Amino acid sequence: MTSAQDEKNTGLAKVEDVAAPGFSPEQHQPVREDLEIDDSEEASMLPSPVVAQTPRQKPKLTAAIIIPIWIVLSSSVIIYNNYLYNTLHFRYPVFVVTWHLTFAAIGTRILQRTTPLLDGVKDVSMSKDMFLKSILPIGFLFSGSLILSNTAYLYLSVSYIQMLKAFNAVAVLLVSWTFRISEPNRKLALIVLMISSGVAVASGGELKFNMFGFIVQAASVGFEAARLVMIEILLHGLKMDPLVSLHYYAPVCAFLNLAALPFTEGLAPFFELARIGPFILITNAAVAFLLNVAAVFLVGAASGLVLTLTGVFKDILLITGSTLIFGSTVTAIQVFGYSVALGGLVMFKLTGNKK
Description:
Helices cover 66% and strands 0% of the residues. The chain has helices spanning 40-45, 63-87, 93-114, 128-152, 158-164, 168-178, 186-204, 211-234, 242-264, 268-271, 273-276, 278-301, 304-325, 332-350. It is globular, with a radius of gyration of 23 Å. By secondary structure, the chain is mostly helical. α6 crosses α8 (211-234) and α13 runs antiparallel to α14 (332-350). It starts with 39 loop residues before the first helix and ends in a 5-residue tail after the last helix. The chain is built from 14 helices and no strands. InterPro entries: Sugar_P_trans_dom, TPT_transporter. Residues 63-348 form the Sugar phosphate transporter domain.
C-alpha cells in the first residue's frame, strides 16, 4: 500500500514509511528589457518589469545527520511523556494530547508563513466536501489513536509498549484485507503469524502485565491501522508529508479532543498547571512538534526500508533506555519474543509492502 508513505505522525510518537514529494525550482522565462521607448516621459509612467520569483527550496539534511536527530527526538517525546505522566503524576493524557495538537496547529501556520517547509499545502486542493468526508473522519481516528496510545503509558511500561507496537503492521494488514484493499497470500500470512507469535511471547514474559492497559494499547493500534487504511480509501493516494498532514489534522483533532475533555478529565488538569509550570508544558509540546519537523527531512533522506530499520533501532534503544531510566524489567522471554516479532517486521518490509 502506498499510503504509509503519506503519513508518519506523528503524533507521536510514530513515523513509518513516508514518501516525500520532490521540490524542484520552476524554470521561468526571462523578462524582456529591450523595449525601445522614445518618449522619456512615457517611459517614466510605465511600471517596472516584474521579475519572476524562484520558489523557495526546502533545506535538506543527509541521512547520517537527520537519522540520529530523529531517533533522539522520537525517544525524547516518549520518555518526556512518560516522565510527565508517571514521575510528575500529571496523569491527564487527553489534556496533554490536546495541548500538543494546539501547539502543532499554531506552529505549522507559523512555519507556513516563514519557511518553505509547508509549501506542499499549496498542492492540496482542500474543499468543504473533502474536509467533511475525508479529513474529519481521519482526524477522528488520529485523535483516538493519540489519546489511547498516551493513556497506555499510565498502565504499561515504556519497554512493553514498544514491543506491542510491532503488531502495528499486522493490524494494518488485517484492516486492509477486511476492506479488500489488498489480498492475503501465504507469505503475508506467515509474517502475520510470526509477528503475532513474537508479540504474544513478549506479552507472556511481561512481569507487570495490566489487562486494561493492554486493551487500551490494542485499541490504539486498531485506531491507527484504521486511520492509515482510511487515508488510502478516502484520499486516494494524495501526497502529504508529515508537516502538511499535521497542518490539516492538528486543528481538527485539537477541537475533537477539547470537546471530549469535559467528559473525560474535566477541569482537573487545569488545576494542576501551576504545579507543572509553563516550562514543562512548552518544552514537552515543542519536542513533539520538532519530531514532526524532523520527519519531513527524514522521509526525504532515507528509503522505506531504512526508515523501518531506523524505527526498529529506536525501539531497541527505548527499551534499553527505559530499563535504565525508569527501572523497567525486561525478561529473557520478552527479548526472544520481541526478536521474533522484529524479524517478521523486517521480512514484511522486504516483501515490498508499504505498510
